[in-house]
Amino acid sequence: MRIVLLGAPGSGKGTQAAVVAQRLGIDHIASGDLFREAANRGDELGQEVKAYMEKGLLVPDEVVIKMILERLSASDSARGFILDGFPRTLEQAEALDRSLEQSEGKIEKAVYIKVSTEELVKRLGGRLICRNCQTPYHEISSPPKVAGRCDLCGDELYRRPDDAPQTVRKRLEVYFAETAPLIAYYREAGKLVEINGERGIEEVGEELIAALTKEGGGDF
Ligand code: AMP
Fold first, then answer.
1. For the domain with range 2-116+176-216, which CATH number is right: 3.40.50.300, 3.90.1150.10, 3.40.50.720, 2.40.330.10?
2. Is the pTM of this model over 0.85?
3. Which of 30, 42, 43, 163 would staple 84 via disulfide (CB 3.0–4.6 Å)?
């Protein structure tokens, strides 16, 4: 089971990828989380990617592709994986397909979580993330039970520096220019599943699981 999750920043990709991974027993691989970990460690990769992330720009393809393909080969889930935040360019999608072909595998489904630009801006504006487990919250639509603390692990919540209004605008611009074309790429390959992301977290999650599993008409 190899799934790609597509959607703009703020579409709920991270939240839904965690739900799908847990329900289907597959590995959740989030490129943004891997980069944030590297940036916090301050190692060579971290220093290189930090500047791009702070500006809302994409990390260069060769760096991302190498990192994700290495992570994929280390994936310990025999049942498969869900990719969250990768691929983000056509070049990344093609590199992923080539690499999977070599191991006689392929991406089976690309799920696109559709959310209007107006709603994305609203969501990113109030987003809070757990420093430890990366669980996302929203100041207004899904606040934590205790202000500033994660419901799951109790660690501190913070606002991602790249959720500042100016950087959000840049990230959305980059998304529409570089990543949105992947919707057509996976549609032409007959792999695209579209989900309306403008509903509650649970409803979106249920529709996603249904679309992927046999009971809901999916393949798994
Ligand atoms: P995310 O948490 O998915 O919003 O990613 C945060 C930041 O990490 C992005 O704004 C990019 O700077 C970088 N990043 C994550 N995934 C990719 C990717 N597939 N290609 C290029 N840059 C990425």
1. 3.40.50.300
2. yes
3. 30
Amino acid at position 159, single letter:
R
Read off the pLDDT of residues 121-164 as tens digits, 9 standing for 90 and up.
Answer: 989 989 999 999 999 999 988 899 999 999 999 999 999 999 99
Q: Which residues are catalytic?
A: 13, 88, 127, 160, 171
Ligand 1 binding pocket includes 52 (Cβ within 6 Å): yes
Encode pLDDT of 69-112 as tens digits. 999 988 876 789 999 999 999 999 999 999 999 887 899 999 99
Instruction: Report the atom number in ligand 1 closest to the C-alpha of 171.
Output: 10
Instruction: Pull the structure tokens for residue 184.
Output: 């057509």
Q: Tell how far the Cα of 215 is from the centroid of ligand 1, in angstroms.
A: 33
Tell whether ligand 1 has an atom less than 6 A from the beta carbon of residue 85: yes
Cα separation, 207 vs 171, in Å, equals 27
What percent of the chain has a predicted confidence (pLDDT) above 90?
Answer: 83
Residue 113 to residue 216: CA distance in whole angstroms: 17
Short-list 218, 60, 42, CA closest to 31: 60
CB 12 less than 6 A from any atom of ligand 1: no
Tokens 């597959």 belong to: 26
pLDDT in the model for residue 76: 72
Q: Which amino acid is at 190?
A: G
Average pLDDT over residues 205-209: 93
